[in-house]
Amino acid sequence: MARLKILTFPDPKLRKIAAPVNKFDKSLNKIVSDMLETMYEAKGIGLAATQVDIHKRIVVMDLSEEKNEPRIFINPEFMILDDKSLFSCEEGCLSIPGITEEITRPDQIKATWQDIEGNYFEDKPTGLLAVCFQHEIDHLEGKLLVDYMSSLKRDRIRKKALKA
Ligand code: GNR
Ligand code: NI
């Protein structure tokens, strides 16, 4: 296993769109295990491959207290089932350290993904799992928390990050 470097805003590589995974081989296993190590080390609850400069549709998560329930989502997708059912959450992001923002997102979604062997799954996550699923898919599409903020706030965060 290896710990990977997490890209931070405003790195333009965070804006790349990830490509679907179509080979469920050893190299996918290696990426996933490195991403899990990187996520645990950084004390995040989720990590998208985009954040470690790998532009493939791979997400890892662990929402458990004990940090012993790794979840792996290959080619994750979601559909909004009810656009009137919303959930607000104070979100953080490993790629925008030190910043949190309250974001409102759909709470009733249908999620689909593949596992590391390519088997297909679906579920209807709610609450934090639904939030995290959408947050990570945003990364795969090159979208970040700052995109939900006012441009004034975003520019302030950008300037601070560039100065540091
Ligand atoms: O560690 C993380 N915490 C978090 C909290 C609320 C909503 C989303 C998240 S994801 C974030 C890790 C991360 O940046 N994943 O992309
Ligand atoms: Ni993030």
Automatic annotation (TrEMBL):
Its cofactor is Fe(2+). Its EC number is 3.5.1.88. Fe cation binds at C93, H135, H139. SUPFAM superfamilies: Peptide deformylase. InterPro entries: Peptide_deformylase, Peptide_deformylase_sf. The active site is at E136. GO terms for biological process: translation. Pfam families: Pep_deformylase. Binds 1 Fe(2+) ion. Keywords: Hydrolase, Iron, Metal-binding, Protein biosynthesis. It catalyses: N-terminal N-formyl-L-methionyl-[peptide] + H2O = N-terminal L-methionyl-[peptide] + formate. GO terms for molecular function: metal ion binding; peptide deformylase activity. It comes from the Bacteria. PANTHER family: PEPTIDE DEFORMYLASE. Belongs to the polypeptide deformylase family. Removes the formyl group from the N-terminal Met of newly synthesized proteins. Requires at least a dipeptide for an efficient rate of reaction. N-terminal L-methionine is a prerequisite for activity but the enzyme has broad specificity at other positions. This is Peptide deformylase. It comes from SAR86 cluster bacterium. The lineage of its organism: Bacteria, Pseudomonadati, Pseudomonadota, Gammaproteobacteria, SAR86 cluster.
